[in-house]
Automatic annotation (TrEMBL):
It comes from Tessaracoccus bendigoensis DSM 12906. This is Peroxynitrite isomerase. Heme b binds at H159. CDD domains: lipocalin_heme-bd-THAP4-like. Heme-binding protein able to scavenge peroxynitrite and to protect free L-tyrosine against peroxynitrite-mediated nitration, by acting as a peroxynitrite isomerase that converts peroxynitrite to nitrate. Therefore, this protein likely plays a role in peroxynitrite sensing and in the detoxification of reactive nitrogen and oxygen species (RNS and ROS, respectively). Is able to bind nitric oxide (NO) in vitro, but may act as a sensor of peroxynitrite levels in vivo. The keyword Iron applies. Its EC number is 5.99.-.-. Forms a 10-stranded antiparallel beta-barrel structure able to accommodate a hydrophobic ligand in its interior. In fact, this fold hosts the heme group, which is located in a wide surface cleft. Pathway: Nitrogen metabolism.
Length: 167
């Protein structure tokens, strides 16, 4: 079996399991909002490192109109990915819609499964996000992910999914 593991130059050895994520990823995806209405979006994600024992992450999404052009910012999140020696991982995110989330999970070579451990919402949060689960994976050189979300109004269900290319 050939496993495609990348170790970027200067990457802290404790981050080797996440080396394949490092870089900029772009593409389009689909989603359903908290009312169940479908939409398409453009996304840019960047994973980077600075020598510390974490990756830092930023994701921006923009809604797409019927013509495929960006119409407005949809959301942004930023955070830190902390892998552990036992292949577990902790991910701390802050979302532009008014919440922070701690996710925990497992790294399985080029697949990462995450689930919410805790959510803190600001009083003015746009959505009553309460829990989530995420799956990230490298498939044929692309970054694919699926994000399920629960809110105060509904149980866990698909929210965002995309296939992004390395930019």
């Amino acid at each position: 079996m050939n496993i495609d593991i990348e170790v970027p130059e200067g990457l802290n050895p404790k981050l080797t399991a996440l080396g394949w994520l490092v870089g900029r990823w772009e593409g389009t995806g689909n989603g359903t909002d908290h009312e169940g209405v479908g939409f398409e979006f453009e996304q840019r994600i960047e994973f980077n490192h600075n020598g510390g024992e974490y990756l830092y992450y930023a994701s921006q999404t923009f809604l797409l109109g019927e013509d495929g052009a960006e119409t407005e910012p949809f959301g942004m999140e930023t955070g830190f990915w902390h892998p552990k020696a036992d292949a577990s991982i902790e991910v701390m995110l802050a979302n532009s819609d008014g919440w922070t989330e701690l996710l925990v999970g497992q790294i399985q070579v080029t697949r990462i499964d995450l689930r919410t451990d805790a959510v803190v919402r600001a009083e003015g949060a746009q959505v009553s996000h309460s829990a989530g689960q995420r799956l990230y994976g490298k498939v044929d050189g692309d970054l694919m992910y699926a994000l399920d979300r629960a809110t105060a109004e509904h149980d866990l269900r698909p929210h965002l999914w995309a296939r992004l290319k390395r930019a």
